[in-house]
Amino acid sequence: MINAIRPFHVALLVLCAGFSASALAHNPMCECKAIDAEQIQCTGGFSDGSGAPGVTLDVIGYDETILVPGKLGEDSKLTFKKPGAEFYVLFDAGPGHVVEIDQADIQAP
Amino acid sequence: MSLFTAEKPGSALSRFWHKWRFHINVLLLLIPLGFMPKYFSEVALFRGDTGLGEREVGEVQVGPWSLRLAEFRNEAPRPDPAGYMKAFNAALCDSCRDQVKATYLRIGKPRSLRAAGVIFFGAPYRMGAMLPIPEKTKATDELWITMEGWDGSMHQASVPLSQASPATIAWLNKQGGKP
Predict the structure, then answer these.
(1) 3-state DSSP call for residue B121?
(2) What residues have CB less than 8 Å from A54, skipping those under 6 apart?
(3) A96, B114: Cβ pair inside 8 Å?
(4) What is the pLDDT of residues B125-157, one digit of tens each?
(5) Per-residue pLDDT, B3
(6) Contacts of residue A31 in chain B, CB cutoff 8 Å?
(7) For position A2, what pLDDT does the model report?
(8) Measured between alpha carbons, how far is A81 from A24 in angstroms, rounded to an integer?
(9) Cβ A88–B132 below 8 Å, yes or no?
């Protein structure tokens, strides 16, 4: 009886060990830079090294109106035209998994 | 002619090894014992046997609700690929466990509920959040707690960072706060 269960225990242990790495924290990260005078490119991702294709990235004005509703492309990047009004970039991978970048923190080209 | 050749006298190292190998191996077994107090204190911290965290900040009133906030470790923020991070733990008050949907933490007042900061995850008795500490954080900044209820209501409160984490303030002062 005990011997019959043992392979199952071993398999369970291996599975637990194998999936434990996926429980590590992966914090959202986002970087924006001006590629020329008119355009800004933002790159999103997670601290475990994974990309963020399809994740929402909105450009929001200081008055909370959404100026550019966007989603990151397959390369986890989004390029948009610099808005005229004051703005910040919000990388939004879900509630509590956001990165905010103020326009003042975007490097000039 | 003798059948036995005289044993070559070994090197000094070899003689030392043969004489003391038993004792050296016993010492090797003792090494892990030295790490035991540290190990058990870590286990107690992770299990919550020594409280919410290494340093309790205290009870923070957030609108009709309140939570107990603690620094998980009483130390400077730790580097991470996503920037410097500081772990906080929190426990909801007895009466608000059923009412609070989400609790967020952020340095500085949030612009909106969407940008309320990092979310606390885990059971309401012991939740955890990893707060990114921007390098340009000022010593006078405040830690903002945003709580969202199941009824759609939202309440906010702030705690001076100097009160929430003196270790972070010391770290900010040491690295001379980036502009």
Answers:
(1) strand
(2) A71, A72
(3) no
(4) 999 999 999 988 999 999 999 999 999 999 999
(5) 61
(6) none
(7) 47
(8) 36
(9) no
Determine the residue of chain B that is closest to A90 in CA distance. B115
Which residue shows structure tokens 């190998």? B21
Size of interface A-B (CB pairs under 8 A): 44
Closest CA to A29 of A91, A108, A87: A91
Q: Report how far apart, in Å, the C-alpha atoms of B107 and of each of A54, A94, B25, B73, B142 are.
A: 28, 19, 52, 18, 6
Residue of A nearest to B103 (CA): A96
Question: Do residues A106 and A41 touch, judged by C-beta distance below 8 A?
Answer: no
B154 touches chain A (CB under 8 A): no
Report helix, strand and coil shares of chain B as percent, to nearest 5. 30, 35, 35
C-alpha span between A56 and A65 (Å, rounded): 15
The tens digit of pLDDT for each residue in B62-112 reads: 999 999 999 999 999 999 888 899 999 999 999 999 999 999 999 999 999
Tens of pLDDT, residue by residue over A22-78, are 445 689 999 999 998 889 999 999 999 999 999 999 999 999 999 999 999 999 999
d(CA B24, CA B95): 59
The length of chain A in residues reads 109
Q: How would you label B96-114 residue by residue, b for 16+ Cβ within 10 Å and e otherwise?
A: beeebebbbbbbbebbeee
pLDDT in tens, B45-69: 999 999 999 999 999 999 999 999 9
Q: Which of residues 31-70 of B touch A (CB under 8 A)?
A: none
Which of B84, B113, B114, B144 is best to mutate for the A interface (most A CBs within 10 A)?
A: B114
- The nearest alpha carbon in chain A to B106 belongs to A96
